Hints:
There is one protein chain. With about 190 residues, this protein is mainly alpha-helical. It has one domain (about 1-180): Four Helix Bundle (Hemerythrin (Met), subunit A), CATH 1.20.120.1630. It is built from six helices and two strands. Helix 1 runs parallel beside helix 3.
Amino acid sequence: MAPMMFAVGFLVLHTTRLGYGLPVLKRRVVESRRDAVEMAFLAAIFVGTVVLPLVYLTKPQSLAFAEYDAWRWLPWVGAPSMIGASWLFWRSHADLGRNWSVTLELREDHTLITHGIYERIRHPMYAAVWLWGIGQLLLLPNWLAGGANLLAFIPLYLVRVPREERMMLDHFGVAYRSYMRRTGRVWPRRAGDD
Length: 194
């Protein structure tokens, strides 16, 4: 049952990405900070989020060496994590609209989005990936397929977010610095936080 829950979430996540991602590709890139490090991280994320889970779902015997006996309550924690991740991922894309990019790029007419979910969180898409990784780990009882997302995402997050924020500061200047002061990175700021 847990792998089926994951499969449904998997379809929702990737349908969301395609639905919002394909129209963006038509817009001209005006600034790119994409490099070999960025592309290597994205390749690792693809393996951890798409390849290994699909292998597990379609040919579980090929990853049998990494299976573990899951506690019965894990899906009851993993499913809400996956549902929350799917909603946050969709909401992030919907609010960002034409300003989204899979890599560190700015496209023509790029604007600073500070409404919707972005009113409180600067990087809700990364928050969604954190939740997704937890859900994947709990719903796929396989150390390799279940943990691959988080294993790939942690280094990407640690390297990419500072680079992305530097790009936004360079492009939007004072407006982005002010936005940083009033929002949390992946979790809403509490009143009075500095």
